[in-house]
Predict the structure of Outer membrane protein beta-barrel domain-containing protein.
Amino acid sequence: MNNMIRTAMIALIATAYTTTAHAQIDGGALEYMLQRPRVAKQWQHKKPFDHLFVDGGIGTSVMGARKPEFGLSGGFNIGDWITPEHGVRLNINTGEWSTQGVKSKYTTLGLDYLLNITAIAQSGRYYTPKRFEVYGIAGAALAIAHNAGPADYGIDVHLGLRGQLALSRNVYAYLEPRFGLVEDQISQVNNWHGWRPFTTLTIGFGYRLPVVRKHYAAPDKTKHSFADGIFVSGLVGATFLSNAHNASWGDYAGVRPMASVGKWFDPYNAVRLSLSAVTMRPTDQKRTKALSSQVEYMLNLSNVLTGAYPERTFWLNMLGGVSFNRSNCQPYGLKNSWGVSGGLQANVRISRGLSFVIEPRVDIYNKHFIQQNGHFKPYNVMPSLLTGFVYTYHDRYAIERRANGDRGTKKVSISIAGGLASTSTKMKQSDYWMPTARLSYTQWLRSANGLRFSLDGTMRRYTAEGRYAKAVADFDWLADLTAMNYGTENRAWLSLRSVVGFAIGADYGAHKAYFAPDVHAGGQARIRLSSTTGLFVEPTMAYELSDRFKGKNWGRVTPRVLVGIDYVLNREKHTSELNEAPEQKNVVDVSGGMGFYSGNFGKVSGTKKLTYNVRAGYGRWLNGVHGVYGSVSETFLKRDTEHTNHITTVAADYMMNIRNAITGEQNDDRLFQLTGLAGVQMGISSGEGRKTKVVPGVNVALQAGWRLSRHFEIYAEPSAVVHGKGIEDSNSPAHGELKFSIGTKFHF
């Protein structure tokens, strides 16, 4: 009691002394009372959550006073600064307490008050962030802990201090010691007063929204088309059934591809329609295949929290929606199910319209989705991690191009491509890989969109189901996504295009033909080789509508990949020099060589199968690419051991400077030249003991030349000739020649 009285007296004396000391201010007590209080700092234009921050770290936890024991801990925090001086945060911490040999694993959910000590010490009404700041922390948390028995719940209260170092405008590192008291249920060791002291030390990193936000004033909406904000995406990733037994998670893992189309209605809100598939095969069970159609709402969190800014390098979207699903697994059969979904989507801008995305998401379905899991839970919970690309069309770039006078030009291109096709369920069987070829004509419109017409052929080698072949005419709509963002006259080395269309034709197999239409979609990546030529890769996915696949579980979904080259017939402005003929527009040439002729190939043996040919010709270039060429040639061939026959031809050909066509520039002074010939001819077959015959034909040749000087060139020429029916005394509809010649040209 005496100690308590003594303590109270000391406190009273100290209070009186402090009051007296503060009263001793120049000017007296009145002026002291009229002093202005400290001004509380405020944010300019404060909105909820516009000074949000997230961070996380790891560290150590210490419990016990006489014999402290250490454990690991980690935490995640999310909060908001309400003013520059005061903030709140929600935190989740987990780790392990160790005391008196008992180790308990714990998790806490807490709410903390934050005091920015650096801001309080700064003068003025508005706060300027510092490189290094100090925060005070006070809060409480609900904790759950588990050792050997059932989980126990308890409460902890704590105080702390944080030192925070800004590494950039938005990223920081921090060190945070905390001291507190926690109930015995959490430590799993009881003592007489029911609580234990603890200390934690955490180091980590965080991200905070900028203090000064960027604002974007959208252009007049009347200038924008409905296409503004439309996006398409392709994602793929891994998924698994999380509420199966954790020992069987590997058995219930699979792949989820997803294709989507949607629209941003403003900088904040969008709707996305998606089609995704899931396939997995648990051990010793039949494969499950499921198809999902989803409608999801998307919210641009970065724009909501920091203001609309369209030129971000990184942004975060939140999404959620519903799905209708159809799954198939034997012996359960086809089942329908409903589901809900939610997730986040992180976007990294690659170009004006293209971004790379990472999308962690969770889908929850009823028990009919993954039917083998029906005996586990009434619901199927499936987390997924998807990655891919999203392309978004922005009208503001088109408006910018039109304002600069870039309205595009109409173009025509031709292309040839080849590749492989298969069926989605038999891709592992090489017998079902089908070579495919395509010849296309594309009319490009001013707006970077094009209409493509193609002739397409596919053939599968003989299998147990017989040979299969398909010939169709394709009608496609192409959109040059790069041109939409960077202009139709761009010189980018890589262009990305979307493809969507349909095909009409017929297929043949198992001695029966069917009408074989399909619908298909895909993309095209084109590498610009020159102003007129490009190399492209085009993956597509088709859905076959032929009755051939009616009642079958394979064949309708047909992926394929084509590789090809295209040539733009219209010249760009800088290729106008090709409209003029070269300085040496006339050319004469002579050549000679050897070859084979189908008309005598089976009648003689050895070197007598060889034919010998000579040719003389004259050509004239009409411009830098196109020309005409006329020639007279003679072929000498053996029909038996004694007699030599002749085939004399007079030809009229179209001549093309292939090198100029590819590069779009005059290359007459270059060492290497490439020329193509194609045309019609009249052949005269004669010889001893034979009646002279005159028949039409066609020919094609390719000349690879080396320019020795301004006027002289030598070249090597492979060529092929097809003679019409009647050149030989046989019922064959045609005969042909293959030749290889060496020649020289004189340009003047």
